[in-house]
Write a structure and sequence with these properties.
The chain is of the alpha/beta class. It has three domains: 4-15 and 200-297, 4-hydroxy-3-methylbut-2-enyl diphosphate reductase, catalytic domain (Cobalt-precorrin-4 Transmethylase, domain 1, 3-Layer(aba) Sandwich), CATH 3.40.1010; 17-100, 3-Layer(aba) Sandwich (Rossmann fold), CATH 3.40.50; 102-186, 4-hydroxy-3-methylbut-2-enyl diphosphate reductase, catalytic domain (Cobalt-precorrin-4 Transmethylase, domain 1). Helices cover 37% and strands 19% of the residues. It has eleven helices and twelve strands. It has a five-stranded parallel sheet, sandwiched between helices. Strands 3-2-4-5 form a four-stranded parallel sheet, sandwiched between helices. It has a three-stranded parallel sheet with strand order 7-6-8, with helices on both faces. Strand 2, helix 2 (47-56) and strand 3 (58-61) form a beta-alpha-beta unit. The N and C termini lie far apart (63 Å). The relative contact order is 0.19.
C-alpha cells in the first residue's frame, strides 16, 4: 500500500509571457535564418530550455565578441546594457532584442527620470543580468544599487532631493516593500514608479505560494539555481510557514529522505521553468505515493507579448 499524499499545485506557476515570447523568438529566428543563431546570455534561466534550444541550433555566448558578424544574435529576456546594442550596430550585425517588455518598461522609466535630472536608485541583485542591463541604460554613476534595507543607510546620492527609484522585476514583493519604505523614510522626495516594477508574474507566483504554504509540510520549487524569481519563491514559501522549502531543477534532484512520511506537499515553478518539468516531478511522486492533486489558484493570467516584426517577416 502506497502512503497517501496530497499535492497542492500552485497556479499560476511556470512560464510567464516574457519567457514564452523569448523562447518563441529563438525558435522563429532559427526558422527564419537557419542555424546557428547566437544568443547573448541564457535566453531564460533554465538549463532544460537552453539545452533544448541548443539542440535546435542556437549557440549561447556570454559576450558579443564570441559571435561572428554574419550570424544573427538575440539578446536575452533579462535585457542588455546600451553598450551591447551599440556594439551590435557598430558591427552591422542582425540583432533581435528579446528583452521582456516589462523589463523594457523599467529601462524607459529610468531614462525618463534621468532626462529630468534625477539620479536613480535601483533595488536589485548585484551582477544579475537584469540589474546589469537596467543600470547600463544610463551613464556610469547615474544608478546607485541597493540590495537590502541596510544598504539604504549608506547611500550617498549627489542630491538627496533629486532621486527616483526602479526595481528589478523578479524580486520578493515583501522584501522590496521594506526597502522602498526605508528609501522613502530617508529620502522623502524620492520618486517611485507609476506602477510597481515587480512584474505581474513574479507577484502572482509569490501570492500562490503564500496561499498554499500553510497547507503543505514541504514545498518544492521547480527552477534554476541562477533564476532570481525561483529563488524568491523558496524564500516566500519558507516565510509563509513551510518548514521545508527547496529549489530543484528536475525530478532527479528530489531529496526523498528529507520527504519521508510527509502527507502534504506544495509544488510550484519559477517563471522560466517549463510545465514538462513540473509534470516530471508530479509523476515521480505518483510512482511512490498514492497522489491526489489539488490546484490552488490565486490568479488567472492571460498576458501575451507580440514578437518583433523582424521575426514575423518572411525571408524574401
Amino acid at each position: 500500500m502506497r502512503a497517501p499524499l496530497t499535492i497542492y499545485l500552485a497556479a499560476p506557476r511556470g512560464f510567464c509571457a516574457g519567457v514564452d515570447r523569448a523562447i518563441k523568438m529563438v525558435e522563429m529566428a532559427l526558422e527564419k535564418w537557419g542555424a546557428p543563431v547566437y544568443v547573448r546570455h541564457e535566453i531564460v534561466h533554465n538549463k532544460y530550455v537552453v539545452d533544448d534550444l541548443r539542440a535546435k541550433g542556437a549557440g549561447f555566448v556570454e559576450e558579443l565578441d564570441e559571435c561572428p558578424d554574419d550570424r544573427p544574435v538575440l539578446f536575452s529576456a533579462h535585457g542588455v546594457p546600451k553598450s551591447v546594442t551599440a556594439e551590435a550596430k557598430r558591427r552591422e550585425m542582425i540583432f533581435v532584442d528579446a528583452t521582456c517588455p516589462l523589463v523594457s518598461k523599467v529601462h524607459i522609466e529610468a531614462e525618463r527620470h534621468h532626462a529630468n535630472g534625477l539620479q536613480m536608485v535601483m533595488i536589485g541583485h548585484a551582477g544579475h543580468p537584469e540589474t546589469v542591463g537596467t543600470m547600463g541604460q544610463l551613464p556610469e554613476g547615474e544608478v546607485l544599487l541597493v540590495e537590502t534595507v541596510e544598504d539604504v543607510s549608506s547611500l550617498t546620492p549627489r542630491d538627496p532631493e533629486r532621486l527616483a527609484f526602479v526595481t528589478q522585476t523578479t524580486l520578493s514583493v515583501d522584501d522590496t516593500a521594506d526597502i522602498v519604505a526605508a528609501l522613502q523614510t530617508r529620502f522623502p522626495q524620492i520618486v517611485g514608479p507609476h506602477k510597481e516594477d515587480i512584474c505581474y508574474a513574479t507577484t502572482n507566483r509569490q501570492a500562490s505560494v503564500k496561499a498554499l504554504a500553510p497547507k503543505a509540510e514541504a514545498l518544492l520549487v521547480v527552477g534554476a539555481p541562477n533564476s532570481s524569481n525561483s529563488k524568491r519563491l523558496v524564500e516566500v514559501g519558507a516565510r509563509a510557514g513551510c518548514d521545508y522549502a527547496q529549489l530543484i531543477q528536475r525530478a532527479a534532484d528530489i531529496d526523498w529522505r528529507a520527504l519521508e512520511g510527509i502527507r502534504t506537499l506544495g509544488i510550484t515553478a519559477g517563471a522560466s521553468a517549463p510545465e514538462t518539468l513540473v509534470n516530471e516531478v508530479v509523476d515521480a511522486f505518483r510512482a511512490r505515493f498514492d497522489v491526489t492533486v489539488e490546484v490552488i489558484e490565486t490568479a488567472v493570467e492571460n498576458v501575451e507579448f507580440k514578437v518583433p516584426r523582424i521575426l514575423r517577416e518572411v525571408v524574401a
